[in-house]
Design goal:
- The protein has 436 residues and is mainly beta.
- It has one domain.
- It is 9% helix and 42% strand.
- It has a 24-stranded mixed β-sheet that branches. Strands 1-3-5-7-10-13-16-19-22-25-28-31-34 form a 13-stranded parallel β-sheet, with no helix packed on it.
- A hairpin with a 2-residue loop joins strand 36 and strand 37.
Length: 436
């Protein structure tokens, strides 16, 4: 009798055990993108093992944007954008998936593709990989709200891609005073110490109590919809900012797009060859230390000063500037280049406020070879060096003119002497600007 009771008890225990295993298996959700599901990290910091989730990402077919680049400008842009830079969809085979959870940081230490979904507060995605690693963050309806630290923090990598999925809106915001990471002043919602590429087919919204996106190396934007609201600068980089495509809207209390390296004034360029860009700024709409070059795209600026760089070269595109100081200012920000405003093609429309304001102000030279310049304001041109009008159309307050007249609202005597003589000096950049 005792043996029969023991057998019954054992059978019941085995049945309970099988039922428990079955329940665990049924509760596990698989990733419906063909990749293998992995378990959630048990610590407060998730590593690149990812977590299990049920998500479908419909990227459609692979999308590769074209870039309207040229080798003939002040910046040789022929090899500026790689194929991966211009690819707006991510390769998801072997990708690691994360669902955001409040208070649980994500740590990425190796190359790969990482898909981020969900909504959370007080989360930082930190990338600390090797110098050879390329890391791609795929934002698939991700929302992070922090008080005092970046939502995405690139400490080390070769290059990081932030790619938005088609049909998704992704939101990253920091509302309070940023805290330092050791000696690093992490003052942006996306803060990258290495190369950064923003692309995709979705929307990325960034709201910041300081800078929106900061890159301490080269920053590229090749696609997607980007909306930035910042109490300081919208986009900021040390060495270069290059835009091939995308729908970009920036509202910034300081500069909307700013590129400057305090340790090396031979770099700090901004290049645009496509996209639709709308900038509203309390100071400069676009500020580059060395070169601002545009080969294509549509740029609208409302700011105190529209565009500022040592060498401003317009080779194409449509630019509209409304400013309360200078519309376009070629100023000596770098000794690596001679100060020059150069217009070769495209359209530039400048509307100026009242007072001591100049539509186009060069602390050096002016060359107009082509394109259309349409100015509304009291002072059309102000230059300290020489000016050459070789072609193109210049319209001032509705009237077509055939000369570059120095208004002398804020320029030096050098410009006055050149104008009085009735002859335009040799002009140009001593290093030899490329002529279009």
């Amino acid at each position: 009798m005792g043996k029969k009771i023991s057998a019954i008890v054992l059978a019941l225990l085995l049945a309970a055990s099988f039922a428990a295993c079955g329940s665990a298996k049924e509760s596990s959700t698989s990733v419906e993108t063909g990749t293998e599901a992995v378990s959630s990290a048990e610590s407060s910091e998730k590593t690149e093992t990812g977590n299990a989730q049920s998500v479908v990402i419909d990227q459609g077919s692979t999308v590769v944007s074209s870039a309207n680049v040229s080798s003939q400008g002040a910046i040789d842009a022929s090899d500026l954008f790689t194929k991966r830079d211009l690819t707006q969809t991510a390769e998801l085979e072997g990708a690691v998936y994360y669902t955001l959870s409040s208070g649980e940081d994500i740590s990425i230490t190796s190359a790969g593709v990482y898909v981020i979904s969900g909504s959370a507060t007080e989360v930082t995605i930190t990338i600390d990989a090797t110098d050879e690693d390329k890391v791609q963050l795929v934002l698939n309806g991700a929302e992070i709200t922090n008080k005092d630290f970046p939502c995405i923090y690139v400490k080390n990598a070769d290059k990081v891609f932030v790619t938005t999925v088609k049909g998704t809106t992704n939101s990253l915001s920091v509302s309070g005073t940023f805290t330092e990471d050791g000696n690093t002043n992490t003052d942006a919602v996306i803060f990258a110490k290495d190369d950064l590429v923003l692309n995709g087919l979705g929307t990325l919204k960034v709201s910041s109590s300081d800078n929106g996106i900061s890159c301490k190396d080269d920053l590229k934007i090749t696609g997607g919809t980007l909306v930035i609201s910042a109490k300081d600068c919208g986009l900021e980089a040390n060495d270069s900012i290059s835009i091939a495509d995308g729908d970009i809207t920036i509202t910034a209390a300081n500069d909307a797009i700013h590129c400057e390296n305090d340790d090396d004034y031979s770099v700090g360029s901004i290049y645009i060859c496509g996209g639709t860009i709308k900038l509203t700024a309390g100071d400069d709409g676009i500020h580059a230390t060395t070169i601002f070059q545009i080969d294509g795209g549509n740029v609208t600026v409302a700011a105190a000063e529209g565009i500022e760089a040592t060498w401003v070269q317009i080779n194409g595109g449509d630019i509209s500037v409304t400013a309360t100081d200078d519309g376009v200012n070629a100023a000596k920000k770098s000794t690596a280049y001679t100060v020059l405003f150069e217009m070769n093609d495209g359209t530039l429309k400048v509307s100026m406020g009242q007072g001591d304001t100049d539509a186009i102000d060069s602390n050096g030279n002016i060359i107009v070879n082509g394109g259309t310049i349409n100015i509304t304001g009291q002072s059309s041109f102000d230059y300290d060096g020489t000016a050459k009008y070789n072609g193109g159309t210049i319209i001032v307050n509705g009237q077509t003119v055939n000369a570059i007249t120095n208004q002398m609202m804020g320029g030096g005597m050098g410009g006055m002497q050149q104008n009085q003589g009735g002859q335009m000096g040799p002009g140009g950049n001593q290093g030899g600007p490329r002529r279009w």
